[in-house]
């Protein structure tokens, strides 16, 4: 044992000396930095392949290994919430059908005095807890699904883009009571990967442990699949449109805005929409007024010779059919115009939504509008940009610089790992 430790120590020392030496040489002679030595202190990321699609699956998932020894779980990626949770045998009071058997905790419960617990609770909510009590949690999502359980801490083995593997202990929810409203069909998942900007999110935890910068991003492919990354190592150095994150009423969300809505490059009269980016939402939601305006703009633009209402297609609330069934989404997109969200507080910042970013192609050969009426699901004035409108783009949520960026990208190709 001892011998091995000596070797490791020497090796570390050697590496430190070597990197220090080269750094010295390169800065002393003002030479360009060698490509293997990045400027940032972190310079590493974790990249996960994604599976899923907008339609018919309705989710994008990662496989995450958790525990000692690690076991795999499929988790929906959600930039709209902070806490990661797994269905858990604590025992499980109410679990939904899932791909894997529930996670088994092993006396690794997080206590109330833990700062991550505090970040999820306001003291007023839990006046009767003592610091050594276990930390309970409850999360409820916009679709009224919910998870209730207790916080635990366990190993999350991850491989960094620089080739190193570690298994830091991270805090997550052990969910033993999941509720899904009768109107929803239960998602087939082991849990949710929370990627919000709160203290409890996995990206914030990895960043406060010093492993990565507090940056998360995704590249969702329109053909299905794609990738997720934590850290800023794979972010391209140019071509990204950046927009500041707005702090306001919806403190915990990745909010942008306000934005004006254009249809085919023309003003629609819809101005100042507050926008939230949420990878946990399959579709895009507009408030009732914007939705109504959008729907009438699209309908006015439709040539009745090419497209008619497909009232029998119940895939989504509004569908159209062609004179004969479309062979693909591409077959139909030429009959639709692009949408633009034009952010008013910053010059020239626009999010372009081509027809592919707001239409789905159904098994009946029709197309349906993937922008839905937020009032129907009780979203009020909130406007959510969901997966459908983020396809084939790299979307980067930079919590350090408080900005969100996007750039067209080939999401079928995983960034090169060393
Ligand atoms: C790779 O990155 C991780 C996370 O930042 C870091 O802990 C590790 O020391 C790095 N490994 C090498 C060989 O630089
Ligand atoms: C949007 O939903 C609200 C609430 O259900 C409804 O009152 C309104 O008519 C809907 N708008 C359209 C254009 O369908």
UniProtKB/TrEMBL annotation:
GO terms for molecular function: aspartic-type endopeptidase activity. Residues 1-27 form the signal peptide. Residues 60-407 form the Peptidase A1 domain. GO terms for biological process: proteolysis. InterPro entries: Aspartic_peptidase_A1 (IPR001461), Aspartic_peptidase_AS (IPR001969), PEPTIDASE_A1 (IPR033121), Peptidase_aspartic_dom_sf (IPR021109), TAXi_C (IPR032799), TAXi_N (IPR032861). The keyword Transmembrane does not apply. Belongs to the peptidase A1 family. This is Aspartic proteinase Asp1. The lineage of its organism: Eukaryota, Viridiplantae, Streptophyta, Embryophyta, Tracheophyta. The gene is LOC102584763.
């Amino acid at each position: 044992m001892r011998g091995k430790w000596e070797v490791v120590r020497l090796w570390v020392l050697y590496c430190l000396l070597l990197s220090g030496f080269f750094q010295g040489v390169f800065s002393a002679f003002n030479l360009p930095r060698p490509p293997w030595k990045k400027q940032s202190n972190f310079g590493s990321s974790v990249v996960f392949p994604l599976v899923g699609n907008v339609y018919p699956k309705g989710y994008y998932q990662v496989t995450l290994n958790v525990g000692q020894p690690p076991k795999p779980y499929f988790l929906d990626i959600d930039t709209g919430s902070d806490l990661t949770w797994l269905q858990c045998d604590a025992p499980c009071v109410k679990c939904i059908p899932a791909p894997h058997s529930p996670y088994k905790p092993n006396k690794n419960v997080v206590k109330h005095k833990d700062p991550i617990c505090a970040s999820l609770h306001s003291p007023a909510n839990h006046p009767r807890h003592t610091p050594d009590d276990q930390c309970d949690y409850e999360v409820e999502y916009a679709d009224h699904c919910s998870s209730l359980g207790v916080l635990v801490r366990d190993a999350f083995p991850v491989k960094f883009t620089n080739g190193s593997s570690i298994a830091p202990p991270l805090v997550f929810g052990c969910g033993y009571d999941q509720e899904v409203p009768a109107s929803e069909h239960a998602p087939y998942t082991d849990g949710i990967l929370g990627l919000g900007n709160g203290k409890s999110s996995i990206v914030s935890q990895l960043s406060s442990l010093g492993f990565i910068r507090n940056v998360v991003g995704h590249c969702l492919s329109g053909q299905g699949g794609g990738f997720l990354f934590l850290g800023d190592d794979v972010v391209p150095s140019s071509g990204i449109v950046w927009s500041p994150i707005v702090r306001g009423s919806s403190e915990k969300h990745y909010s942008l805005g306000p934005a004006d809505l254009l249809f085919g490059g023309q003003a629609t009269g819809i101005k100042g929409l507050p926008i939230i980016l949420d990878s946990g939402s399959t579709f895009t939601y507009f408030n009732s007024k914007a939705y109504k305006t959008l729907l009438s703009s699209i309908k006015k633009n439709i040539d009745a010779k090419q497209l008619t209402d497909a009232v029998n297609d119940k895939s989504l609330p509004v569908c159209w059919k062609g004179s004969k069934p479309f062979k693909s989404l591409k077959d139909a997109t030429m009959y639709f115009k692009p949408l633009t969200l034009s952010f008013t507080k910053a010059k020239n910042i626009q999010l372009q939504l081509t027809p592919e970013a707001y239409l789905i192609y159904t098994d009946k050969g029709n197309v349906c509008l993937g922008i839905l009426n937020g009032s129907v699901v009780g979203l009020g004035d909130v406007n959510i940009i969901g997966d459908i409108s983020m396809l084939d783009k790299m979307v980067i949520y930079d919590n350090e610089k408080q900005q969100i960026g996007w750039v067209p990208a080939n999401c079928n190709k995983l960034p090169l790992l060393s």
